[in-house]
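Hello,

I think I submitted the biotinyl-5-AMP job twice by accident. Can you confirm which output corresponds to this input? Input:
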Amino acid sequence: MTRTHAHVYLAFGSNLGDRRENIAEGLAMLHESGQVKVTEVSSLYETEPVGYTQQGLFLNAVARVETDLSPLDLLSLCKDVEVRVGRKPTVRWGPRILDIDILMYFAESDDTLLSGLGNSGEDGTEVKMDTPTLTLPHPRIWERGFVIIPLAEVNPDLVIPDGRRIKSLIQDLQVWTGLRLFEAAPWWHYADQNRKGWQVTRFTEVESTNTIAANLASVGATEGTCVIAETQSAGRGRRGRVWHSPPGGLWLSILLRPTIQSQDVGRLSLIAGVAVSSAIRETFQLPAVVKWPNDVLISGKKVCGILPETRFLGDKMDFAIVGIGVNVAIDTDLLPLDVKETSATLLSPDYPYASGAREALTASILNNFSRLYKQFLSEGFLEILQEVREYCDTLGREVTVSRLGMPIQGIAVDIDSDARLIIRTKSGEDVHVISGEVSIGVPGAG
Ligand code: BT5
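Support: Only one job matched these inputs. Its output is below.
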């Protein structure tokens, strides 16, 4: 059989639990399978259930995807995703955590699956098949607004099995009965991120996402390019330290090309720290705080480290990479004992919705970072310093910072406009430290 590059329209429905999240999770799982690329997602529509009506309202959406999978392999993947998102066997027409239907499948190849001509055009040739497990195009649901309306957003020129064109069908008010716009597109985070100017590239395993991002920068990648890897074999911390990056974490590097000075790097690090802390608070309702200069902690344990790296051409910054490592759902037993003691993970590694949660966190980090970074560039660091102070848990604490091998002890009283930590020593002197290792409390004081 020849390789089947196909464009496929899928319908999603959910009426149990967090319906929006179920659909988002399903889309993310398909996308992350590496076998399906989600290229377009419609708005979410809320609809009254059909048939057995003693159940909650449905949310529905349609997506256009690209795949090399055959129709039956794609069906198995969709069923697998339904199960993983948590579908329990229920009565037909009964409540659904997630339902995924293949509506239409268009193949670009001369595959023998093609048994008849329906739609043809940019998408390729429509595959028609009728087997006990799968009938294409979908045999039933074309009279339903919750399919036709979102499908019309994604491709209005499609022709449904009875020969009518989608775009003319949605002119009819009757199709809209019992349906309401729940959330307009773009609502799904991948789509959202790319529309907001981020270009997120994903790898299964790399040595370090910071290196890949720097390589991309060297060949001309633009600001907003991001690299995400599932694992890193040589993740880096500061000063040559190792950053352990087992599966389940978020290992992300953001490429920036700002016209800033080398001392601004500390500011970028704090901006990233605030973006990550606020994203963790938003997504998981956990009390994340920034530990100056580059950690995010929960209850004193490190859940995230940030590594800014820069390259200069002469005295001009060519690019900056902000590396962000978050222990989203990692197995902390994979960390060396000393690291395990000081670190934490946001979710347990066997949490079933971890991949969707990681995507939601990624989207939230990028949104927060984008907001703060834009404000920093347009209004200056002072304008966001107040927000940094609010997140920075180091302030007001007794700290010891080692600088050039010399410990400086005192109370961390503030952060200055250069992102330096101000330490008031016992003698009342304010020392501004640019970077260093901060330990909270006085050594030996327990
Ligand atoms: C950091 O360095 O905290 C910066 C970490 C940056 C990691 C990201 S992941 C994406 C991007 N690609 C990379 O290669 N790096 C960035 P530092 O402050 O030097 O802290 C390093 C120390 O944190 C180590 O010496 C360990 O003690 C500890 N550590 C290592 N892995 C950890 C983990 N997964 N969770 C918590 N602590 C860890």
